[in-house]
Amino acid sequence: MGVTLEIQNLHAKVDGEDISILRGVNLTIKQGEVHAMMGPNGSGKSTLANVLMGNPAYEITEGDILLDGESILEMEPDERSRAGLFLAFQYPVAIPGVTVANFLRHAINARMKEQDPESKGISIPAFRKMMMEKMGKLEMDSSFAGRYLNDGFSGGEKKRAEILQMAVLEPAIAILDETDSGLDIDALRIVAEGVAMLKGPNLGTLVITHYQRILNYIKPDHVHIMFGGRVAESGGAELALRLEEQGYDWVREKYGEPVS
Ligand code: ADP
Ligand code: MG
Fold first, then answer.
1. Is 20 helix (H, G, I), strand (E, B) or coil?
2. Residue range 77-88: average pLDDT?
3. What number is the average pLDDT over the span 232-242?
């Protein structure tokens, strides 16, 4: 039995404000499944990603998030990460002074220590070998490992660094928030093929995207439309194609302009 992420009737707002952004999100993602979450700008997609990872800027007012049957609401973001959740950010932050390689090695070691407090962590040669292998698969130049994380990275490089983190950390459930936004067609292909390559029985993915194009590479099993802070529609790949052809107008007509 694989790991399951269950989002139950989730309501959330910006901490200290009154207006709800998420207004009853229900969604279940199992290891091995690829879900696409689409929806117009402002519908709450990034808020959902942030709330899943425990961003303290948001307050959950109702509902629950279960990972493997256990509520994660009281867990800090790093605990959620060690429990197998991963979020690729829409806007990754730079960490000058910390190389990509060091960042990844520390992340792996933190995980190994969680499983075994006596663990000395991964050896440097073993880590290098593993990282170079994953970078090769993602068509990344080896010099990338020695650069400071996201410092001066192009849009495409930042997104590739996120995918590399995902490849190295091997999460049970990964959430990709608009990993395709701001990429030219070549960068999009490499990032999307990277994600498609990581697809497998041990990875459940929530691909958040405004556009259908990344889904040509990452074939989703389920497609959802977020509207007004809820999952308004769910279906198969045909739902994404309908959005590609018809845009979001029919969704707005069917569900009305969201009210606050
Ligand atoms: P999407 O990712 O679907 O475009 P978001 O989740 O980013 O939508 O935003 C949903 C709504 O919540 C928007 O109206 C946005 O302005 C508001 N919102 C989200 N995060 C914040 C925040 N930290 N502070 C204020 N408003 C926010
Ligand atoms: Mg967003």
1. strand
2. 90
3. 95
Straight-line distance from the first to the last Cα atom of the chain, in angstroms, rounded to the nearest whole number: 40
Structure tokens at 196: 């498609």
Residues 79 and 8 in one domain: yes
Nearest CA to ligand 1 atom 13: 42
DSSP 51: H
Report the nearest atom of ligand 1 relative to the CA of 41.
4
Question: DSSP code of 200?
Answer: B
| Alpha-carbon separation of residue 93 from 31, 73, 158, 246 (angstroms) | 28, 24, 9, 35
Residues 145 and 250 reside in one and the same domain? no
User: How far from 71 is each of 18, 22, 75, 151, 218, CA to CA, in Å?
Assistant: 24, 18, 8, 35, 29
Q: What is the pLDDT of residues 171-216, one digit of tens each?
A: 999 999 887 777 788 778 878 888 888 889 999 999 998 888 888 8
Residue 90 Cβ inside 6 Å of ligand 1? The answer reads: no
Domain count within the chain: 2
In this predicted model, what pLDDT tens digit does every residue of 116-156 receive, in sequence order? 899 999 999 999 999 999 998 888 889 999 999 999 988 88
